[in-house]
Recover the amino acids of this structure.
């Protein structure tokens, strides 16, 4: 049996694993945040979720949308749309033998930008806070994609 | 050329590959389910999708939303939000050299909980069926993230 | 330290890395397309995004939905729903030692079909253009899942 743990001895890969796990855990917090606002504001999407608050017509009034809940859901979807490319491209980039300090700079910028994006979205902070943090994360992922395709294109 | 097939000789990695493939195939079924309900209930989101049912104003009446279709779409999005972290964290966790039986317990719990989540959502079963299955999957992913960061943190 | 760059010497893996990076970059273009339509059509989801167009009640009129923007967002979500399984299953399939030409055929068909899907969705082209391109991508992913589970099932 191969000792796969030696892959984790690679410093770039270990750094990628740490930053990817942190940003995915942050993304998972968005589910908990949505659930928190749904409970405290009594705003539900499914009839079976609000039976504890009343029966029949009385329960139906909780089937509604709420600005706060929709804001968290948009932030969550934006996370998905940006973290999925980071995971895919970042994993392949990590395996392509990049310079350690360049790689860590990419990972740190992305994770920092996405955490700031969430803060900007949920507070909400005035623009261009959210816009800038979005574009930093976007640019980091494109920079990794460019380096990967420049060195390792095989079609 | 490296014989990459030896990675697949690692039992934890093979188990992860099997469970990940199964749960991703299940997630893909949600697309087919949405398409099925859209066709049988004649509920469409795009004008070009309902031209076979009528022309002009007559076709526009099929551009609507439907409780059943929206329910499947919410289940699908919830899958995406939870399966993406499982894939990313689970892959890195599998490479970090965990105990085989612990790893398989994590994978089985996650896949079982997500399948039960879909059944609870689409039937729908009364709460807390869906809520509990969500939290089991959520907890399994966080448990893998915790073990990964505890052993291999590199920032 | 392990020389991980040797993984990239594997031709199937290099091909997967190239096609995955291309299709993820294409998916990222959807964010830019949404932002482009939101700016040019002045259609926003958040109050803080439209303050440059007016204050108070005057700004609120830009908080609306628009057919064109919603179409891009549906195409983006459909990308996420289909590219995530391709990434997960495709990565594991690439590591399972498939025949090079078979693997490249799978990757090319998927990437071609998803690019055509986006063109069909955004133009929009009449059906079944979009439907067919969806099913080709869907079938390619299921074909990789089938080969993976047939050879390497470990539960």
């Amino acid at each position: 049996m191969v000792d796969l743990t030696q892959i984790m001895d690679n410093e770039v890969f270990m750094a990628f694993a740490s930053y990817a796990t942190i940003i995915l855990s942050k993304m998972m917090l968005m589910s908990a945040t949505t659930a928190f606002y749904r409970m405290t504001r009594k705003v539900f999407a499914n009839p079976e979720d609000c039976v504890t608050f009343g029966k029949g017509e009385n329960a139906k009034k909780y089937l509604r949308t709420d600005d706060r809940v929709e804001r968290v859901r948009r932030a969550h979807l934006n996370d998905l749309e940006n973290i999925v490319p980071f995971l895919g491209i970042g994993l392949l980039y990590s395996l392509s033998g990049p310079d350690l300090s360049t790689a860590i700079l990419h990972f740190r910028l992305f994770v920092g930008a996405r955490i700031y994006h969430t803060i900007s979205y949920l507070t909400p902070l005035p623009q261009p806070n959210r816009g800038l943090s979005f574009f930093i994360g976007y640019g980091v992922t494109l920079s990794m994609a460019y380096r990967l395709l420049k060195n390792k294109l095989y079609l």
User: Anything to note?
Assistant: DSSP finds five helices and no strands in chain A. The domain at 4-35+67-150 of chain A is CATH 1.20.120.550 (Four Helix Bundle (Hemerythrin (Met), subunit A)). Chain A has one domain: 4-35+67-150. Chain A touches chain B through 37 residues (CB under 8 Å).
